[in-house]
Amino acid sequence: MVSSAAEAVKDIPDGVRIAVGGFGVVGVPEVLIDALHDQGAKGLEVISNNAGVDGRGLGKLLETRQISRIIASYVGENKEFARQYLSGELEVELTPQGTMAEKLRAAGAGIPAFYTITGSGTQVADGGIPWKYDSDGNVVKESPKKETKTLSTFGEEHDYVLEESLPSDFALVRAAKGDRAGNLVFHSSARNFNPPAAMSAKTTIAEVEELVEVGQIDPDDVHLPGIYVARVVELTPEQVADKPIEKMTVRED
């Protein structure tokens, strides 16, 4: 346990790789991100499904130019993200969503690389996906060609792509419930990238909406064992209630 989000992130230095849980605005560790925003670490490489939305979550770190590189699978819903990428201010490594989740999980399991059929026969395997532009819109860095291998599964041969795992220095995650030993429970779709992000890191920091004592979570209900979690921050009721709606559609009367 640590006393505050500020205390939890105070030792995160410039230039490290940080895995961040969440999808869109669901399950995003916004309180820890806000604390990192105030702390001021720069030159960060972030692994996240996306960069959230303008003005919230990772969008705040983009506005203050604290992120220099991001590994993501989705780049929509954030105009500043798109602007920085297309203007050459931000390097973006696009990765298939399921592959990215497995790259994080593999890092936590001590697996350096694995083969997957995802991306076979595309630029994911062949290389050439723009990672960085210059200010004139020219591609100055692109994804490299990856190793492929023909393997037989269920009696059929397919070409598979070798993907390296994604270990990180720190991870920021959000859980619905956690105990003081770091055992975590995630609510519904907040289980998206939070568990694999937490597994990937040397130091995982979790913000929890409900803090309970050790033993109050049934072992069968634990989604992420405390062995992966180094620091736990309890959120206030106000922080728990501050949950945005990404898109709202209202029926006409």
Fraction of residues in H or I helices: 10-25%
Q: What summary fits the major beta sheet?
A: 8 strands, mixed
- Per DSSP E runs of 2 or more residues, the count of β-strands stands at 13
Global Rg: 19 Å
Termini gap: 50 Å
Secondary-structure element string: HEHEHEHEHEHEEEEEEHEEH
Category by helix and strand content:
alpha/beta
Low-confidence stretches: none
Helix segment tally? 8
Could you report the average pLDDT, rounded to the nearest whole number? Answer: 95
CA-based shape: globular
Strand content: 25-35%
Task: Describe, in plain words, how this protein is organized in 3D.
With 253 residues, this protein is an alpha/beta fold. The protein is built from eight helices and 13 strands. The strands form three sheets. Strands 1, 2, 3, 4, 10, 11, 12 and 13 form an eight-stranded mixed β-sheet that branches. A hairpin with a 4-residue loop joins strand 10 and strand 11. The radius of gyration is 19 Å and the shape is globular.
